[in-house]
Batch of 2 targets.
Target 1
Amino acid sequence: MKRVLSYRIIFVFLFSLLTSGYLAAQLSAPGSVFTDETNYPVFQEVDSIYIFCSEENLNLGELLVETSLTETKSFNWEKYNSATAVFETFFSEDSESGFSTISDLEDGCYRVTITKGDTVEIYRAWILNDWFNATGRVIESNCDYFKLQSSFNSALLVYYDLNDNSEIEVYKDIQVEWKEGNSVIARVNSPQIFEPPTSDTEYEFNVFDRFGCGTQTNVTYISVVTKAQFEIEADFNSGDQQGEAPMEVTFTNTSENGSPGEYEWYFFRDIEEIKLESENTTEPIDSFMFIAYDDDLIHTYERTGTYMVKLVSKKISDYHILGDSIYEGTCTDTIYLEDFIVTDTSYFDVPNVFTPNNDGTNDNFVVKFWSMEDAKVTIVNRWGKHVHFWEKTNVRRFEGTWMESVWDGKIGGRYASPGVYYYVAEGKGRDGKNRWAHGFFHLFRGKD
């Protein structure tokens, strides 16, 4: 029992000495971004590896040793020479300070020996400066896609077995990514980007490793593509994109990145007319009314029908790329109306009563002319006598409406007698059809 107890006392004593020594002195690397450990194939000890993010040909390594030894002591720094496999003097100083620092260190293993009388402390660590260089460019650009290409080189991080001097490479786990703004679009060196943007766009290439060291470079893609789009505006008084002929429609070009003066508007004929014509022939049918080359335009649909429009936008650019060649090219994009523009068929709409009593309500006999080109209205009394005649040629939208007052209820300047009157309305519609309508209406009016 006594022997076992003495062993325990000795163990606790030794552990206390070792622990106090460890706490009394240490080697650190201020500014390092990562600490790893050696995995020597032969050498039995383990040393720290301190990683510094640096630049090529720039050494940022730094080591700091601290000791609890007091009064004057010697700090002897050595650096491992992998060519001779021995430690060689690097720097030394005598100091009363409790620490010593060496900086601007290149890659290698550094050993410091602290001596005061018979007391000796030895510490050792590896310094590795990690750096990256990168470049990027556009190597291909056309109407369908463009390719980005990056290249980089990086510091080779190695250390040596302190027993047999064999070289060991530090695993870096290098990764790459391309970003547009805050979004990662690829994680390969040379991505191919489809559906190119219509504006010049900056892409950022990043390369980095598991230690957090890396670099980035920016590449600007100069857009060579366009996106066709347009808006229409009209008085669609019958429904969505539907109204009376003649109908004036404003076409506003909102295409992205198109070349001014290089737009083509294709106005199709009435779809029913095209279908009818194609039924009687096997030959190709010309489906276009006309082609316009304006940036924006206004077109009036004079005839009744169902119409489609498409816009072709062109982008002429000197920045098409193939390898080291830059050349001029033209990209196009086409867009159709989502739905047809419809101009309605022609007809008359005649009221069956009006009250010309000068009260401001229903004082006139108002007839609606829908998609008519020419129109005339004859009014007779119940004995067949003509009391009023109205005629209009090239009928168009009347001050933004599609109605016309054809009689104020007067005959020779005097109000007509109340009663039943008859009308005949006739004319030619903008669908090419002759329209005819007849009937009667009541004229009501209070006493004069």
Note: The chain has four domains: 23-130, 132-221, 230-343, 347-443.
Target 2
Amino acid sequence: MALMSKDNARRLVHGINRLIGVNGATPNLNGAPSVRENSVLNPKNPERFDVIVVGAGPAGSAAALVVARAGLKVLLLERGEYPGSKNVSGAALYGSAILDEIIPNWWEHAPVERFICRRGLAFMSLETAVSLDFRSTKYASPPYNGFSVLRPKFDRWFAAQAEAAGAFLLNASVVDDVLWRDGCVAGVRVRRDAGDLCADVVIACDGANSFLAKKAGLQREFHMHEMSLGVKEVIGLDEPTVRERFQLSGDEGMAIEYLGAITEDVHGGAFLYTNRDSLSLGVIGQISSFVEHRHRPYDLLERFKAHPAVAPLVRGGKLREYSAHIIPEAGWKMMPKLYTNGMLVAGDAAAFCFAVGLYLEGINYAIQSGLAAGETAVAAYRDRDFSAQSLSRYEQYLQARHVLGDFQSYRHAPEFINGARLQNFYPAVVAHGAERLFRVDGTEKRKILPIALETLRHFDIKPRDLIRDIYNAGRAFGW
């Protein structure tokens, strides 16, 4: 994986700054062409497929794999030079057993980095970190609970599985429009000669802020507080150093999520994943917070790496890659309508990113939704009915895979997690209380309750506010 040049890094950072309005530009969440009137399918014998999947990420490849295995003619369109080329590298893939259902023992063939058997959650002040550290030997045996992966490698491998099943993969293909015939989505228009492609079902897996979902009238424009911007680096370290610093053996791996002062007054958090010979780490923040407080994402990332709890972990590493990505984090409240006549929406395009503090998951839900979309398309083809009513069974498949249930159950969590009190207040409270608890200065040992009460008074936490926060936490995670 090549190191990004300084010039390219500067251009990327400048683009991010323009996105958040730091240089006076108006924030723009629409990376796709502006929405035009609906386009009608060109009648001059366009190339035809049973199913067209737009986007060769985990959702798109999963959908294409299911459809191809059913014997249907499926086209998988990818905007990048190859699947994964435009994705942020370095990620945690949880739910290994999900992929094992369709590709048995997939980890023996896929380009995985480490299996994650250790997870951490750290509450940060400017100088202190209080961590919860979970480790399980049960997660260190097949089918494993999760893996760290590098997306360019993993996505390319996953798309190849769909190809091996019979899917046609077309790279470097920019989709400009959804095509209609008699009120039904009938294909897509690709930026090339004779670019109209026809299909009975189009599955939109074109990522966050899906252009296709909006063109089909399934998704509204997003508010800036519903979208987050993640900036990430992959830092190279040799394998023995990775194992030693994180107390790992063999192929064991660790994932850590951070909350608190590291993002200052930007609502968000940070993460760190161990790869085989590198670390993937980054900062994620609400775009509205970046705009309001005029923070540059890269500056926050540098401060995160310099924090006393993080700096020893990245010491001596060499930058291999720097990248940025928009993430749909509002969950249930920003979910589009998932189907219409001739079309389904899956993955990030359907806002299936489960970012609720305790969980930072997306690839597993993308795969689940892709499988459900593929199953729906196959069932509709067998019935020869591609109407919205027929495709509505997609929701049943999503319910059966616990996708919609999870997002509905945790529908209050994103708002609570991104609230100012949890982001900027309680991590400081926890850090201050822990510092008082473990301080040894020759004074008498105090019990936990007096220290807790004193900490609450120190931060002027009123009982009614504490009760309200406990209720909101319970509503988000407890019941």
Note: The chain has three domains: 1-30+113-141+223-329, 32-111+150-221+334-401, 413-478.
